[in-house]
Amino acid sequence: MFVLGLSYIAMTLSCKLTLLLGVFALGGAIALWLWQPAALRWKILFAICLALCAETLILRNPYFLQAALNRFHVRDMGFRQYVALECELMRMQELEPVDYLAVGSSQVGRLYEVWAGKHDDFDMLSMGGMCPYDYLLHRDIIDKKCDKAIILTLSDFDLANWTNMLGAKLAPPQPAGKLLHYAAWPLKDSTVDKNLIWEFLIANKIAAYRLQYIFKGLADKKFKRMDAYRADDITAVDQDVVDQAELEALRYINSHWFATNIEILDEFFAWAAERNLRIFVIEGGYYPDVLREQQEIHDEAMDLLAALCDRHNNAILIGAEKLYPLTNDDYHDYWHVESESGLPFSESVMQAIQNY
User: Fold this and answer.
1) Which residues form the domain of 23?
2) Which residue in 26, 90, 97, 281 could disulfide with 147, CB within 3.0 to 4.6 Å?
């Protein structure tokens, strides 16, 4: 795996020193190969060919991925993993794009899921913990699914969020140059575990590593490891515990990642403009009583988003004053609304969009 990783970096960085190291590594690998007994060399070659065939015929096979989706429930592999598997399959399919695509975290899923179910011109790409970094990693999926406008519902909650690199490593494969460009962003911050960046690079190019959650889900299902989670609440976590964790996370919101996320959104907006896609930034939020406690940092985030939209001709900010006012009673927990409450909010969003 070391040689693969080193060869990959040499190829993508176009750096003389790294290329030289790659040549030495390749030479060492060949020397090690020749040093092995002839019988063992053929066994190693057979194992490598078998692994390559398995990756091509199974993990890059849309029929296998579709069978995995049909076989597994969300709880067998996890929310983020299940959507990642859907994205792997979408990469290989011809999709019928919709006029409006709402993109974002599980907050977005709860806000728009009822509206999406009632309107053929509207769809979502929503996954747990999705943040601006993930928009870029999934841009090709967004491009295939969206024909007219992307809807981003954003607030301080989103600008303060940095992607979990364990989630980013599930993202679809990226072109080599883009992949290294995206890997550079988390390197800017000392709080990000650099080992997770290496995992992200490896997983993005080796399907067997990226899709290992399929086999883990199969093992869990086979050996009935999920039997303890048969309750209707598939997370099997007490709601009071969830609420307390969400509340603490909201009160910890700070501007540490604001500048980086705005920089990422700048690039995403420019990418959308190249494809003639409009972007509607909808003022988002969370449990109203807590948001009022955080009003200062929320306003700071919205000011940054307003300035961002002003820089891009394809972007429009729609403020909360034009939207259905969500109350505490509309919320299922501190982060997510009740699905039914999302419907009038979605309707107000679409009415506001029609004015532009």
Assistant:
1) 2-59
2) 97
